[in-house]
Amino acid sequence: MKKIKSLYFLFGVLLFVLALVGCSGETETEASSDSNSDNGKNEEAETQLVEHELGETEIPKDAERVVVLGLEDMMLSLEAPIQAATSTKGQYLYDELIDYGAEVIETAGASYNFEAILAQDPDLILVNAAPAGADGLYDKLTDIAPTLALDREDWETSIQKIANVFGKEDKADQVISNFHTELEEAKEKIIAEVGEGKTVAFIRPTPKDAQILFPGFSYTRLLYENNLGLESGDLVKELQEQEEEDAWGMVMSLEKLPYLEADYVFVTAGSSLANEEDTEKALLMLEELKEDSLWQSIPAAKNDNIFTVSSRHWMLNGPIAESRKIEDVLNALTN
Hints:
The protein has two domains: 48-168, Nitrogenase molybdenum iron protein domain (Rossmann fold, 3-Layer(aba) Sandwich); 180-334, Rossmann fold, CATH 3.40.50. By secondary structure, it is an alpha/beta fold. The chain starts with a helix and ends with a helix. It is built from 14 helices and 13 strands. Its main location: membrane.
């Protein structure tokens, strides 16, 4: 009888142990399931889908190693992270990028140094859409890291998209507001100094011809259309009527320079992306052209109202570039 009771006791203990093991397994399974679910949520939260000029791209939500190709102006204005950026000595943001702690990928022109970009081990690339959309360049960049292509010319829209990526929405609003305030204040000062209804033109000459840039061109838009109290000169209007509505401008012969009727003419030489040597050559060419009788026959030249400005920021867009353009016009017409 005692043996039977002992067997019952052992059997009961065994059932109890098995029950404990079963409960433990269920708890571990539930914990594992909960853990996997949480991990899935975390992974999902670590990326975001962003629409841009060349499609939609899944990017890291907290990107830090960011390589910037042509959108440096907006990124600096937002105080957003820049691991590396393209520039060369003499460009208007070169020193600012160095001071910001960004590594400068030395580049002249609109080319990309893919090897140098890859060496940065970026988790995100931001690129100006215009050059990136050609010759498969965008695809090559996406092979390195997720890449967003944005329109530099429409910088007010693009800076808001960039701000959304980095959580800088308030900063973008401030940058845009500051630009419009600066523009309006400059306009008031210019009108107070020179009066209303004054006309203007913007040209970029070469030894053989000259580009005359229209009001619709993003680089020179703020100079025209009463943004600073100035209107297009007669020749600008005449030539614009001969071109398509959204034309950037046109190339005219130097023989047309004496017909450049405008109270003020702003002139630049060279490219925004040229190296220092090429920029010096372009400026030397401009100085030589100023000695030509055709140049001296420009009505504004006779009144000493031709002003030379830097192509470094006039031939680009962004809040810093636009602010410097405003300063150039303000200094020229009010000093």
